[in-house]
Amino acid sequence: MRTFLGYVFIFMFVPLFCWMFFLSYSEWSASLSLNQVLDKKIPMETIPLAETSWIKDKNGSVIASISNQQHRVSLDNTEIPTFLKDVFIIAEDRSFYDHSGFDAAAISRAIMVNASSDSIEQGGSTITQQLARNSFLSSEKTYNRKLAELLHAYQLERKYSKTEILEHYINAIYFHNGMYGIEAAANFYFTNSTDKLTNAELAFLAAIPNNPNAYNPLKHYDATKRRQERLIKQLSEAGKLTKSETNKLIQEKITLNVQPKTKEQYPDYTDYVNYEFNSLIARVDGLEAKLVSKDSSIRKAAQTKLNNKVQTLLESGITIETALDPAIQKASKESVQQRLKGTDIEGSAVVIEHHTQKLVSLIGGKNYIKNSFNRSYQSYRQPGSAMKPLLVYAPYFEETNAPTSQLISGASYCKNGYCPRNAGGGSYGSVTLKQAFARSYNTPAIRLFEKTGIATSFSYLKPFRFQKITTDDYTLPAAVGGFSYGVSTLELTRAFTSFANGTYKPAHAIMKVRNKQGKTLYQWDDKATTIWSGQTVKKMRNLLHEVTVNGTGRKAYIERSYIGGKTGTTNDVKDLWFVGLTNDYTTGIWIGKDQPSSMAAQQYAAPHLTIWKTINLSIPNL
C-alpha cells in the first residue's frame, strides 16, 4: 500500500514540479541576466570525460593502462554508428530532438511503466539530464540534486548542439565492469572496436546502461538479451527496422568474447614511468626549480600546478611511448628472483642501451608489487668500490694522462686517524694501476684520489647529478665508496654509460608522449655532455675489461666483443654491486637487505655477478 501511495504522490508531484520549472524556464530564456548568472556558476566550457591513457613498450604494445576507476575510450560523432544512436534515442529519450533539456511527459510515462513492472524499464530523465548527471553531478536522489540536474541540462542545451550532446552521452554512460562509453564496452565484452560490431551486438550493449547491475552480461546474460530484443522491437515499432530486419537481429546469436582486464606485467618499470612522467612535465613546464625552492609556499604552489597538469593529461587519453624491451625485462626479473630465491636478500637491476640512452629494463625488487618501494631508483646505498671508476681512476687519467702501467703503492695507509685497509688486510707494495683496479685495492685508490685532489675529482661527478651526494661527502672515504647516503642503482648505471664513448646524457624510459591525434606533446631534449677524453675512455675500458678476466668480476664474464665492469662491496658485506658494459648495453646490479646487515655467507656465490651474467646472456650478441 505504501508503495502504491508513493507512486501516486510521485505521479502527482513530478509533473507539477516539471510544469513549474517549465514556466520558470520560459521566463529564464527571455532573461539575459539569468543566462549570465548561469554562465558564471555553470560555465561548461568543456564536458569532462576522463579517458584512459596508455603506456606502451618499444614495440608499440600496451603494457599498462592509466585510468581513474573509469576505463573509457571516447569516439567522435562520426565514429558512432547511426544505428546505435537510434537505439539510445528510442530507448532513453524519444523526444530528444524536440525538448530543451527535460521532458515532463517522459517523466510521467516512466512512472507509470515502472509502477506496473517488477523492474525499472524506463527512466524519466532525458539524455541531456543523464549526461549532466554523469558528467557534473552525483547520483544521489535528492530534490536539490534533481534541480541542479535540470539547470545543468538547460546549460548543456544552450552550449552544445544535439549532435554533441548525444556524442558525449554515448561516451559517458556506464556499461558495468568498469567500462564507460561504447568503445570501452565493445573492447571489453567483444574484444573488438565499435565499428566492427554487428547491429545485434550494438543493441546488446545498448541494453546495459539502463540498469548496469541488472543487465550485467557476465552475470545476467539472459536478462540483457531480453532487453536487447525489446529495444530491437521498439526500433521496429518506430519504423527504423523492417520486419525481416527485426527478426534477423533478434535471432542473431550473441557470443561474448570478454577481454581479460590487463594485468600490469611490468609494475617495476611502469611505476618508474609514472615517476619520470612527472619529472618530464616539471622540466618542460618550467617547474623544476620551484619544486625544490627553499620557500615552502612556492614549492606547494608548484606541486599543486604539477599535480593538476599531470591529472589533466592522464585523463585526456594520452599515450606514453617507452623504451621497455619486454624480453630483457622478463629475463632480468627471472634472474633476480631465481638467484635470490629463499633468502631475505633483495635486489635491483637496470639495463640501458647506451648508444641511444634508452632505459630498456628496470627491476625494483625480486617480488615487486605495484606502488611499493622501488629499489632501483628510490633506494640509496653505499656503492663501495663501484664508485672508483667515476671518482678516482677516470679523473686521475683526465688530469695526469698517466698510463695504466704506472706504479702506485698498495701498502698500508693512515692519515689523521683514517686508516682504510685492502680487502683481507693485505699490503701489496708497488702495483700497476691496472692491477690495483682489477683487484679492487683500496689504499692505491686513496693515494690517487689525493693526487688528483678531492674537489677536482668530485667536479667530474657533477654532470651525473647524483641526488644524495653533497659537499659533506668531499672526504677521503669517498674514494672507496664511503658517502653520507649513497647512490641509486639507476644513477650509478647511468653514470657508467659514459665509459661507452666519453659522453653522457641521462637515460630515460619515456621516448614520447602523444595525444589522441598522435601529436607529440612531450619528449626529453637532453644534450650529450662530453665527460671523458678519448684516451681516458680507452684506458678505462681496458681496466674494466681486466676486472672481468683477471679481477673481482670474473664470474660475470661472457663471450662478447667487449665486456667490462666493476664490483663494489661495502663494509661487512652489506651491499654487493656490479656495473658492467658490453658494446651495446650498460647493466647495473645491486643486492642487499632492506635493513642493512651482513651477507658474508652469500659473498662467495657472487649472486650480483651471476644475475648480471644471466641477464646479458639473454641479450642477443649484436
Q: What is the fold's blueprint, element by element?
A:
Elements: H1 2-29, H2 32-41, E1 53-56, E2 62-66, E3 71-72, H3 82-92, H4 104-115, H5 127-136, H6 143-159, H7 162-172, E4 179-180, H8 182-190, H9 199-206, H10 221-237, H11 243-251, H12 267-284, H13 288-291, H14 296-314, E5 319-322, H15 326-340, E6 346-353, E7 358-363, H16 388-400, E8 407-409, E9 430-432, H17 433-438, H18 442-452, H19 454-459, H20 489-496, H21 498-501, E10 503-504, E11 510-514, E12 520-522, E13 529-530, H22 534-550, E14 563-569, E15 575-582, E16 585-592, H23 600-603, H24 607-617
Parallel strand pairs: 1-5, 3-4
Antiparallel strand pairs: 1-2, 5-11, 6-7, 6-16, 8-9, 10-13, 11-12, 14-15, 15-16
Helix pairs in contact: 1-4, 3-9, 3-10, 5-6, 5-7, 9-10, 10-11, 12-14, 15-24, 16-18, 16-22
Question: What would you note in describing this structure?
Answer:
This protein is α+β, with helices and mostly antiparallel strands. Among the domains are: 1-41 and 76-173, Penicillin binding protein transpeptidase fold; 177-261, Penicillin binding protein transpeptidase fold (Orthogonal Bundle), CATH 1.10.3810.10. The protein is built from 24 helices and 16 strands. The protein has a 5-stranded mixed β-sheet with strand order 2-1-5-11-12, covered by helices on one side. A 5-stranded antiparallel β-sheet has the order 7-6-16-15-14, sandwiched between helices. Strand 15 and strand 16 form a beta hairpin. Helix 12 (267-284) crosses helix 14 (296-314). The longest helix has 28 residues, at 2-29. The chain starts with a helix and ends in a 5-residue tail after the last helix.
